[in-house]
Amino acid sequence: MDLLDNLALGFSTASTIWNLGFCLIGVLLGTLIGVLPGIGATATIAMLLPLTFQIGDPVSSLIMLAGIYYGAQYGGSTTAILINMPGESSSAVTAIDGYQMARKGRAGAALAIAAIGSFFAGTVSTFLVAIFAPPLTAIALEFGAAEYFSLMIVGLVSAIALAHGSVVKALAMVVLGLLLGLVGTDVISGSPRFTLGIREYADGLNFVAVAVGVFGVAEILRNLENERTREVLMAKVSGLLPTREDFRAMAAPIVRGTAIGSILGILPGGGAILAAFASYTVEKRVSKNPEEFGKGAVAGVAGPESANNAGAQTSFIPMLTLGIPANPVMALMIGAMIIQGIVPGPNVASEQPALFWGIIASMWIGNLMLIVLNLPLIGLWVKLLTVPYYVLFPIIMAFCSIGVYSVNSNVFDLYAVALFGLLGYILTKLRCEPAPLLLGFVLGPLLEENLRRAMILSRGDPTTFITRPLSAALLAIAVAVLVVVLLPSVRKKRDEVFVEEEA
Amino acid sequence: MEITRRTALGLALGAGLAWAGPASAQGFPDRPVTLVVPFAAGGSTDLVARLIAASMSKDLGQQVIVENVAGAGGNLGADQVARAEADGYTILMGTVATHALNPLMLKTKPYDPEKDFSPISLLVVVPNVLVVNPQLPVNTVQELIDLLKANPDQYAYASSGNGTPLHLSGELFKSMAGVEMQHVPYKGAGPALNDVIANQVPIMFDNLPSSSGHIKSGTLKGLGVTTAKRAASFPDMPTVAETVPGYETYTWNALFAPAATPPDVVARLNKAALAALADPTVVQRMGDFSAEIVGSSPEKLAEHVKSETAKWAPIVKEAGVSLD
Questions:
Q1: What's the sign of the alpha-carbon dihedral A99, A100, A102, A106?
Q2: What value, to the nearest 5°, has the Cα angle with vertex A384 and ends A379 and A388?
Q3: What is the CA A432 to chain-centroid distance, rounded?
Q4: Dihedral of CA B285/B288/B291/B295: which sign?
């Protein structure tokens, strides 16, 4: 069979000592930058791009760059869980329950769950990439502006389920996020909006800056306010590995998360981050104990972590099969190919089979390396929590600042971190959740852009959203989610009083 | 300013006795040179910059470090170099966007493309290409024009964004060929190209390098290149100008230093740039990339900026694009 031959070629390419070495360097670097808050894969790969000149062999350089990317997805969850600082956009969801688990002294278990979920997702989605890359590309191409708009609607409706307190507050946060997402140049007309005349904000607010601000800096402020409770938390770190019960609780969410992530990851744009949010929503809905979510639910870590890693792997599909970047990291990978004299496009698989299959095989090898690396490291990461906070937080702040600045060399991004840190702190005091805000922030611009593009293409006819079958199906899902979300909240009207009081 | 002058003076005094010729370039460069790329890493301008920088480093004996200062369609990076110290250690990878189009479209201009820079050298010219989805029933530029004329305003074309060179290539085509089509802007060429391949939008002007793989494999139909002459990498593809006489658009990359950079420093950088353009590796990579190597004197680049501004001004005005 062709596939087996191809995979054999891939594995023989990826498992030369030389390529294994680059894969290891990639995942190590990736884990490291993922762990360092604010420093993302995009900036790191951009910095290492010139190095790929020196490496000379395109397969090795791409294997290393790919390793950095999915390694960072692994590492990003570490800080999200330990200090509520999502290192990568997609681990913002992991922070919700992961950090709560850590506060209960179960940081080790949370990290292990994240690692196991990621490994499973990575394995499954790597094989999906190998077997179904071409048909999956065809699905992605079915998505036009109308379909994206409807998908974003599904995402936004689901956002309400992210909140574990009041629905009104969650809605308010989504809307605030949408508004913040409008800052920057309007794609359709080209005019700047809400930039306060600051040209540095012409491309919008930086996601990393907003995420680091509302999650991380806000959390630091909150912790500094009450140093003593923090120390109490430290004392009861117990049990590094997940219990038998945890394993039972995480199995199904991991499988579901992998499925959701694999599908959404193919879509360019917000695919991978949407995957994590979507998985969280699904888990909360199917869970027998939805009230545990937001308070350290195992499924709330396992599902989204699997989804984001699966999404990270399948986002290679459009890049490998079409030469089209699904996100900035993929754009850099394409740049790396061009530097090496490879023209990205649909012919890469047939003209450079060793490169194409070598990268795919290396993704699985890299995932294996990651879990072998990460499980023993958990003990070390957890020890980080015992570092006195007055030592830890200035270090965190320093890395955040370097990381955020390194994305665009833009000082205004640092001002944004400070401002959003303050905003995040105020929101915490008001008991508003930052996660729906981030989701609104990411989806808002995509929603608007695709709505307007769909309207241009349909020449102003709004029925385009229901006459296109895929779009109609997605809108139906959105309505269904809305009904499911609203019904119990009507039923639980009385219970809500308790929620508010408890909050 | 004060410091620069004094440093230059000091160098001139120190070297003046021994050397009759230009003095302040003697020590140049004695530390790494920063090449600001005003776009994100991975794009075509970035790739040209990295190829050139690696080769220039060899000639200069100092590292040329590429720094991406992306944002505001290239204006942030260009503005940063315009205001940098004029010592030749901070230079810009300018493009048709930073030095012709953007200044024409911005009401409040952050910099003057002619007065705020010392031109170093024009480097390469990258052709654009008119591509259509294979399902669109046209095979030549003329057939496309006929189709658009028969169905005015029924077709749309994708671009990498409002006011980008690719958008204006489309506008120029519309006005010169006398056709109507709807403009659909995207955030960058990647997503736009994606939608053309998926036939969500049937027509696009793209940079030849990013479309070439698709044209070769048949996922896109290339109707014509936008340069005056056919591209070396696609000798069989006609030019748009063969059907629409006089039509010419292309993306160009050129090096600029801040205004008032000492002429001998500019000359040294020019020499290094020209050496890089003659480097066999660079020649080969640029060829793979469909970029045509030009190379020029600083004076030629200054003229080029003037003529590009003159060429685009009426089109920008007619298209009614403004960015603030």
A1: negative
A2: 145
A3: 21
A4: positive
**Residue % of chain A over a pLDDT of 90:** 18
> For A119-162, how does the pLDDT look when each residue is reduced to its tens digit (9 = 90+)?
999 999 988 888 887 777 777 788 888 988 998 888 787 766 65
Q: Which CATH architecture has domain B30-126+251-319?
A: 3-Layer(aba) Sandwich (3.40)
Residues facing B261 on adjacent strands: none
Residue with tokens 């020590």: B27
- What was the pLDDT predicted at A268? 66
> What letter represents residue B162's amino acid?
N
User: A191 vs B185: CB contact, 8 Å cut-off?
Assistant: no
CA A302 to CA B231: how far, in whole Å?
A: 53
Q: Which two tokens stand for residue B306?
A: 């003037």
Closest Cα to residue B85, out of B34, B37, B49, B119? B34
SS3 call for B226 = coil
Q: Do residues A307 and A257 touch, judged by C-beta distance below 8 A?
A: yes
Residues of B (37-56) whose Cβ lies below 8 Å from A: 40-43, 46-47, 50-51, 53-54
Three-state DSSP state, A392: helix
- Class of residue A28 by CB neighbours under 10 A (exposed 0-12, middle 13-18, buried 19+): middle
- How many domains, chain A? 1
Pair type for strands B250-258 and B117-132: antiparallel
Residues 6 or more apart whose Cβ sits within 8 Å of residue A27:
A67, A68, A70, A71, A74, A366, A369, A370, A373
Using CA atoms, how far apart are residues A497 and A76, in angstroms rounded to an integer? 36
Chain A contact for B162, CB < 8 A? yes
Please state the length of chain A: 503
State the pairing for strand pair A192-193/B221-225: unpaired
What letter would DSSP give residue B239? B
Amino acid in position B194: N
Does residue A87 register a pLDDT over 70? no
Q: Where are the beta strands (DSSP E) in B10-104?
A: 33-37, 64-68, 90-95
CA torsion, ordered B176, B179, B180, B182, to nearest 10 deg: -70
Q: How many CA atoms lie within 13 A of A9 on its CB side?
A: 16
Residues 6+ apart with CB under 8 A from A307: A121, A257, A258, A260, A261, A264, A275, A276, A278, A279
Q: Compute the radius of gyration of chain A from its Cα atoms.
A: 22
Q: In the 8-state DSSP scheme, what is residue A499? A: H
Report CA dihedral (A109, A87, A54, B266) to the nearest 10 degrees: -170
Question: Quick check: helix, strand or coil at residue A192?
Answer: strand
Class of domain B127-242: alpha beta
User: Cβ separation of B41 and A408 shorter than 8 Å?
Assistant: no
Q: Is the pLDDT of residue B16 over 50?
A: no
Residue with tokens 């459009």: A318
Per-residue pLDDT tens over the stretch A179-224: 998 998 888 887 888 888 887 888 888 877 888 888 888 888 887 8
The strand pairing partners of B64, in sequence order, are B33
What single-letter DSSP state applies at residue B151?
S
Residue range(s) of every CATH 3.40.190.150 domain in chain B: 30-126+251-319
Of A437, A428, A431, residue with least CA distance to A160: A437
* Nearest Cβ partner for B324 among A46, A191, A348: A191
Mutate: best of B55, B104, B279, B324, partner A, most A CBs <10 A: B324
Calpha distance B38→B113 (Å, rounded): 14
Q: Is B316 strand, coil or helix?
A: helix
Minimal CA separation from B28 to chain A, in Å: 24
Using the Cβ of B181 and the Cβ atoms of chain A, whether some distance falls under 8 Å is answered with no
| Residue B305, Cβ density class (10 Å: 0-12 exposed, 13-18 middle, ≥19 buried) | buried
- In the structure encoding, which two tokens stand for residue B81, read together? 């170099």
